[in-house]
Amino acid sequence: MKQCRLVEDRDFVDRYPEFVEYLKVLFLSRQIVHQLGFGVPDRLYFAETRAYVTIPDFLLAPRFLRAVSRFETLKQAKALLRQLNVGRTADDQLYFFSYKSRHLGTPDNPDSFRRLLVVVPGNAAQHVPEKWVQFGIPDPGALSPVRNVSVVAALPGPERTTNVYFKDYYRTYRRDGSITIKGRWELGYGDDNCVQCHKSGILPSFPVAGSVSREEQPILQAVNERFLTYGPPRFDKYLDASKFGPGLGSTGSSEFYRSVGAGTFGSVAANAATCASCHQPNGLGALNWPMDRIVISSFIKGGQMPLGSKLQDSERAELYQKLIQDYFAIDDSHPGILKAWLLGKIR
Hints:
Blueprint: H1 10-15, H2 17-28, H3 42-48, H4 50-53, H5 62-67, H6 74-86, E1 95-100, E2 114-120, E3 130-137, E4 148-156, E5 162-173, E6 179-183, H7 217-227, E7 233-234, H8 268-271, H9 293-301, H10 313-328, H11 337-342
Parallel strand pairs: 5-7
Antiparallel strand pairs: 1-2, 2-3, 3-4, 4-5, 5-6
Helix pairs in contact: 9-10
């Protein structure tokens, strides 16, 4: 756009404001100092949000760090968390359970899917965010450690919204047996664009079937119910997610959105394509591009979404294909959601 001087063409900018702003925010994540995809450099983001995304001190205790770093000692880590809960008030109880992720490995090991999630309650009156702290756990018998610890913090924002903040940490295992934790970015490993996966800010948990023990099933349910109490996700002053436009299934009744492929419209899968009933700016956040295709595919084909729907595997595959085609279609006479929005046909 700069080479063609389009940004200086007021007629073009006024005619296609969505296109211009969209490319501006996409361009940010292509820059080495904006790997998070936010409007400020990563260095400044981490400096300004430090108070929100620090790991609580009790999760940095050496005894706990040793226990949470191996599958074989995970029960000891949970026992330590239960001891902490004895001294905490009813409103300040820690929620924790271990599970196996369906779709994403840890940033340091894409083949590592085991996790321990600890939800640390916040205090909105004192401006203390709620923190979802997640430890990567090695497989049973694994010799290589898993380093990643992630923090996603939620703090009530204006107009009943929730501001969400992110940070990944890496554990360093030293020869003397000690374990230290430092930010992944500070250690020189860079970072990822958080919002590609976290369209809804904090994500609910849909573990691999059977990976959560019977005793911890009620905790999993309580954590997901807690997720539903958060307001529409926002990313504070660092990102205006509306600049990414509408998401999957968001304009199904519009003349600019049609079924791609004969016979699809009216089928069970097509009628289930109601993502935007929840995933929209004033709900759980729009599922717009850029997005993590593995997450979307896993949630739909794995049976978690659409929530409460009972579809056959073939219908889920049809639904996923329909949503993707209808979003990315580039036909001039019947553009998909993304193209129609970029051309100003959906406002």
